[in-house]
Amino acid sequence: MSTRSAAFRAALCVLILVAVVAAACGGKKAPVARPAPPPSTTTAAVAPPAARPPAPPEPVAEPIIVPPEPVRDDTIASASLDDLNRNSPLKPVFFELDSSEVSAEGQAVLNANASALKKYPTWYVTIEGHCDERGTPEYNLALGERRAIAARAYLMSLGIPADRLRTVSYGKEFPFDAGHDEHAWSKNRRAHFVITTK
Description:
- The chain is an alpha+beta fold.
- The protein has a domain at 75-197: CATH 3.30.1330.60.
- Helices cover 41% and strands 12% of the residues.
- It has 7 helices and 4 strands; from the N terminus they run H-H-H-H-E-H-E-H-E-H-E.
- It has helices at residues 3-26, 43-46, 75-78, 81-86, 104-119, 137-157, 182-188; strands at residues 93-94, 124-130, 165-171, 190-197.
- Strands 1-4-2-3 form a 4-stranded mixed sheet.
- Helix 6 links the parallel strand 2 and strand 3 (165-171).
- It is rod-shaped and about 165 Å long.
């Protein structure tokens, strides 16, 4: 190989190298300006200035339930338990022989008793079941209990709370009238009311 051709090749290589370098450096383009993104079209951006989110609802006022105060301005409310039971506003209910069914007259009495118990809501009552002297003690205790329970159930049906009404049976042990005839017996067949707490 002649010197001339080796020099030609070396010159050619240098030329190619320069062309490649020039192409690499000179081929960079200026950055293209990109358009700005369009403005957001959300509801808040396009909403008129007067539009506002709805106001929260007004709170609902809950009614305050206050228990009734005991009546203090009458003689019944200020009376002692002994005086109340001596002159009780709660009247007894009378029953027929061998019966614990509340009669129409008994219902009228219990209606009046329920009104008094509603007027004085702090009163607690024991309903005593009583019988006349006929029958065995066991039978009369059971009958007295049925009478007391019947009176209690009727009062509860009128809205008197069950926890204010206690029952007990005395059978024939505490007669109202000590006589031994129908007049006395009719007074002894009863549901009697005792105010135990006021």
